[in-house]
Amino acid sequence: MVSNEEVYPDHDLTAMYHEFIQEFNHVNGVFNILNEFMHLWEENIWESLFNLHCQWKNHMELQDNLKLAPENLVLAQAINNGILPNKRYDAGSGDVYFNSTTFTVDYDSFLYLHIFLEKLYTFYLGRELVVDDLWALHKSDISERILGGLDIFNLFRGNLFLGDEFFQDIKEVTWVEDSLIFFKKFQNLFISFLFEDQGGNETTYNLELEKILVLLAHSGAVLSDHGQIDFQCVLRAYQTLFKIIKTDITSLADKRYYTGLLLCRDCNELYPLLEDEAPFDFASCNCGGELKYVGKVESVTIDKNI
After folding, report:
1. What is the pTM of this model?
2. Alpha-carbon distance values, 94 to 87, 170, 198 (Å)
3. One digit per residue, pLDDT tens: the chain, 306 residues?
4. Which residues contact 167 (CB under 8 A, 6 or more apart)?
5. Cα separations (Å) of 131 from 110, 139, 154, 264, 297?
6. Helices (runs of H) and strands (runs of E) counted in the chain
7. Helical axes 200-223 vs 164-172, angle rounded to 10°
8. Is 269 in a helix, a strand, or coil?
């Protein structure tokens, strides 16, 4: 149980924690989520993801990548079902973090999940993404697995298709008032713990996580046929987010889209990847040199220069 005042050295934060526990200790599973959150903090996962967030460039807004990046099926389905993007995307303003309605599902909810998965993919790859990474990630069904399976998303085999009914139902989900209060205070406790001072990066980081959690909670309500978000939908949303973060999602990517080569600068060897192979399947070259993945177009230029 996370109740040690050494964990919450700040007086205001300690008071916030005790107030939260006093109000919501009756909610079954709340302490498990608190413990899981603290485990990720002790492993420096939250800090690592925040650092990625601060450095991130949204691939959807890089003009050079627009015609190269794959269409995400979930985003396309959201649009087809009337969940439309804000005009800022059409204008190419670069402003991803807009003041959307935080506790309802809108286009940003799906977009933030899309971007978060790219960040997590970068986190597990340990490098910046290239175009083939985007194809391997977004042509897999990771988003569908998450929204259709929540905390058991990794158990699905084959493609999971979310039909129009899912997107129509998710728009009709409402909050139970006590559950919304619970979620707001829970998230405020987490963010207050992570950041003593909250500037622009901290605010957008919180907004991204908040929107994803709201989307997951709405998905939970749809999957349970309740139509309303109760305490358990909120807790399952957190449980799902933590499961996503702890899962090396490179194992769920579609390797068929890695059509380039592995290059070793030490021995000038080029290795074309087979259909069931990906760059992250190889730790180093046979000579011990570091391997770099290059896409098909780039590899032609390299091949001519060797």
Report:
1. 0.85
2. 11, 27, 22
3. 333 444 444 558 888 889 999 999 899 999 999 999 999 999 999 999 999 999 887 655 444 554 566 778 888 899 999 998 875 444 344 444 444 556 899 998 999 999 999 999 999 998 888 888 999 998 888 999 999 989 988 886 655 668 899 999 999 999 999 999 999 999 999 999 998 877 888 988 999 999 999 999 999 999 988 889 999 999 999 999 999 999 999 999 998 988 888 998 888 888 888 888 898 888 888 888 888 888 764 544 444 444
4. 77, 78, 80, 81, 83
5. 20, 12, 24, 20, 11
6. 13, 5
7. 110
8. strand
The encoded tokens of residue 271 equal 């290795």
Token pair, residue 7, equals 């964990």
Amino acid at 215: L
